[in-house]
Known about the structure:
Distance between the termini: 77 Å
Number of domains: 2
Number of strands: 3
Number of helices: 6
Amino acid sequence: MKPANDSLLSVYRAAADASRWDAHGILPFWMAAVGREVGRRTRPTFLANGRLTVEVDGAEWREQLFPLTGKILARLNKLLAQPLVQWIDYRLARPPRRPPGRAGCAVAHSEPCDEASGIQDPQLRRLYRASMKRSR
């Protein structure tokens, strides 16, 4: 009996037309080729002309994956049952965008934006502000 993962990949493979592959269509094959741990820290984002662009969570991951590119390509193309990907570009993922707000103020809008705003711990931030009030 075949593992469920192999069965799902064969369904994806049969349903896909080779001329219409994109990065999202390759995602299940990517996850199977690199494994769970690497798959959590990487995302295929673009595929064109045999070049797959993959976002990675950090420079250290990019440095570790680059020497493994040949093995990853071989596994990926074997799972795809065709030599669709010839090269992988690893790019650093963009940090999540912060919603628009007051410039330079990293704390909630209920607190004033001052030099204490850079203190991450809320209790320490309150103590600092109270200390500054007393010293004035």
